From TrEMBL:
Positions of the AB hydrolase-1 domain: 125-363
Protein name, entry field: AB hydrolase-1 domain-containing protein
Native species: Citrullus colocynthis
Region entry Disordered, spans: 1-48, 69-104
Entry-linked InterPro entries: AB_hydrolase_1 (IPR000073), AB_hydrolase_fold (IPR029058), MES/HNL (IPR045889)
PANTHER family from the UniProt entry: METHYLESTERASE 11, CHLOROPLASTIC-RELATED, METHYLESTERASE FAMILY MEMBER
Compositionally skewed regions (Polar residues) per UniProt: 1-10, 69-82
Lineage top rank: taxon: Eukaryota
Length: 376
């Protein structure tokens, strides 16, 4: 897509290459329909031109026009040895050689033997996926955590993963995050969890932290939107000027409410997924993602978070940076950290935007390490 205007050209509508989820009921012609006209609207609703301004800010990473207002590690290295370890886990079947910085270890090696899980504030991780992903993306993390004695729960947010809801019908962040807030509400009194959010999941766990701060021991942001009060996820993308061809070309807007209304969702084009999210990920996991990812609901991305120091601010926060990330560049991650400093920052070398695929062992070790950090 040479530029954003060309993307919305009625004479050359982009091909809808991303398959529709089987559970959605929207017809295919309506699903791929692009903007054919631009009409001025008044009042509080988002106009056509404002939607384009939003899209430009989101996918070209330039500042949003102030006139548009919306409510909306370095990981441990295991020493190598010349002797073959009979107890090592089997080698991945991927054709990509495993990085020496992410060696395969027995699960029990990933937890210090002098640490008793019962002595931790909590050993229960709740994993929240990013935009377009689903609970399925955490399958390696779940296996490693459970084999090490931890509890792990992965949530499908509304319209994501196998959740049978049309992403185009989601109107606000509370609706999108409802499976997570329902889960936290049902936790027994006195029980706490460690919330882990990836990508847009960072905004989602922030929303939950404001509501259920007393049930959250720690929050971990993995290449995630870690926002301040009054920010929306678009603000994260406008922190850095310039444009990203991969980011811009990978997006297709969906107008399920008609061309004269704002976008309802964003589709991620299948051919460009690897370069954007999975540039260090094994081919088998890229294949899994290509048939599992679903459209990202647009209204929640626009919604500004209301976060207080008394609630959200009372939860201990940790950030994990992904240093080979093509989706949320390191300067953007660092800007969020500088504006809203967490308790500690960790780094994953050689990790793309999806470290649960590209660096599962290193990510696991960091999660375990964070679970053991005592209050200062």
């Amino acid at each position: 897509m040479g530029n954003l205007c060309a993307t919305f050209s009625p004479s050359k509508p982009p091909a809808n290459t991303f398959p529709n989820p089987p559970s959605l009921s929207i017809s295919s012609n309506r699903w791929s329909r692009m903007r054919s006209s631009r009409r001025e609207k008044t009042g509080d609703s988002l106009t056509s031109e404002q939607a384009l301004e939003v899209a430009a800010a989101l996918f070209q990473k330039r500042p949003l026009d102030s006139s548009v207002s919306f409510d909306r590690s370095t990981s441990l290295r295991q020493p190598t040895s010349g002797k073959k370890n009979r107890n090592a886990l089997p080698r991945s079947s991927s054709s990509r050689p495993r990085s020496l910085t992410d060696p395969l270890l027995q699960p029990q090696q990933l937890v210090n033997q002098d640490i008793k899980l019962d002595d931790l504030e909590t050993n229960h991780f709740v994993l929240v996926h990013g935009g377009g992903f689903g609970a399925w993306c955490w399958y390696k993390t779940i296996a490693l955590l459970e084999e090490a004695g931890y509890r792990a729960t992965a949530i499908d947010l509304t319209g994501s993963g196998i959740h049978s809801f049309d992403p185009n019908s989601i109107t606000d962040l509370s609706q999108y995050v409802q499976p997570l807030t329902d889960f936290l509400e049902k936790l027994p009194d006195g029980e706490k969890v460690i919330l882990v959010g990836h990508d847009f999941g960072g905004a989602c766990i922030s929303y939950a932290m404001e509501l259920f701060h007393f049930k959250i021991a720690k929050a971990v942001f993995i290449a995630a939107a870690m926002l301040s009060d009054g920010q929306n996820t678009l603000d994260m993308f406008s922190l850095q000027a310039g444009s990203d061809d991969v980011m811009r070309q990978s997006q297709v807007f969906v107008y399920s409410n008609g061309n004269d209304n704002p976008p309802t969702a964003i589709e991620l084009t299948k051919p460009l997924l690897k370069n954007l999210f999975f540039n260090q990920t094994p081919a088998k996991d890229v294949a899994l993602a290509s048939v599992s990812m679903r459209p990202v609901p647009f209204p929640p991305v626009l919604e500004k978070l209301r976060l207080s120091d008394m609630k959200y601010g009372s939860v201990r926060r940790f950030y994990i940076q992904t240093l080979n990330d093509n989706a949320i560049a390191v300067p953007i991650q660092e800007s969020m950290i500088e504006r809203n400093p967490p308790e500690q920052v960790f780094y994953l070398k050689g990790a793309d935007h999806s470290p649960f695929f590209s660096k599962p062992q290193a990510l696991h070790r960091l999660l375990v390490e964070i679970s053991k950090i005592q209050r200062p």
